[in-house]
Design brief:
This protein has 3 helices and 6 strands; from the N terminus they run αββαβαβββ. The chain is α+β, with helices and mostly antiparallel strands. It is globular, with a radius of gyration of 13 Å.
């Protein structure tokens, strides 16, 4: 139930992103933030996360314990057309399928 609710929200952006930058899952709000159609194919989120950079966030998530907050504060995203959008967010480290890590963005 909660997963289905999160998927439909547009005012809350939620995404599960691998440490390599692959978008594992995202809700409508995340696609709205990136100015993309829902369920668009995103090969790598790096170009969309501007400040702090995806590289910085992933490095922090790699060092963190599962569930630990990696970053909390403003994150600036660049939409498909390069338009910046900043929001207050938290990035968590999370374990996925054993030792593979995820960075999770949740405002």
């Amino acid at each position: 139930m909660q997963q289905a609710l999160l998927q439909s929200l547009q005012s809350v952006a939620f995404a599960e992103i691998s440490l390599a930058g692959d978008l594992i899952s995202a809700n409508r709000g995340f696609y709205v933030l990136l100015q993309l159609a829902p369920d668009s194919v995103v090969d790598h989120v790096g170009p969309y996360i501007n400040n702090p950079s995806f590289t910085e966030l992933a490095a922090g998530a790699q060092r963190a314990m599962p569930g630990q907050v990696v970053y909390q504060g403003l994150i600036t995203f660049l939409g498909e057309l390069g338009e910046p959008r900043s929001l207050l967010a938290r990035v968590y480290a999370r374990c996925w399928r054993g030792s593979v890590g995820r960075a999770i963005i949740w405002p």
